Amino acid sequence: MPLRDFIDAYQSQVALLGIQFLWTTRLQDALCKGKKIDKQQDLDKKKKDNDAIMKELTAMCLDGDLNKLVRTKIETLVTIQVYQRDKFDEIIYLVRSDKLKDEHDFDWLRNTRCYWKVEEATVGISITDVEFIY
User: Fold this and answer.
1) H, E, C per residue of 34-97
2) How do residues 103-112 score in pLDDT, each as one tens digit?
3) What stretch of H or E contains 9?
4) pLDDT tens-digit series, residues 26-45
5) What Cα–Cα distance (Å) separates residue 4 from each residue in 19, 51, 69?
6) What domains are there in the chain, each with its CATH number?
7) Do the Cβ atoms of 39 and 101 come closer than 8 Å?
């Protein structure tokens, strides 16, 4: 589903979880790659995908026809996306400098990560070694 359609179709919290799922999944997938060069190439590609979301959200903010509630929702998504962009850049730096080797390193685990738990049909929000069911 295109990003704009997803944001228009769901409440703010669901839209927020959606972009957090994307961020977590993209980084987790890249960090699970075996070789450092594979991780770096995958992270670079996924960073471009992440940047495209930011660009699209920013364009949506400039839409003059948004009501106050929708504008607030999109502005919140932009704020979270800026944070995620900065964390993405930090993780890329850590991988390149060999300070973050895989998805088990603390530099990844210390981030708030959102996962869809298929078996339980719930959201798991993880920070370090703690998981909260949402």
Assistant:
1) CCHHHHHHHHHHHHHHHHHHHHHHHHHHCCCCCCHHHHHHHHHHHHHHHHHHHHHHHHHHHHHC
2) 999 999 999 9
3) helix 3-9
4) 999 999 988 888 889 999 99
5) 12, 15, 15
6) 3-108 (1.20.58.1120)
7) no
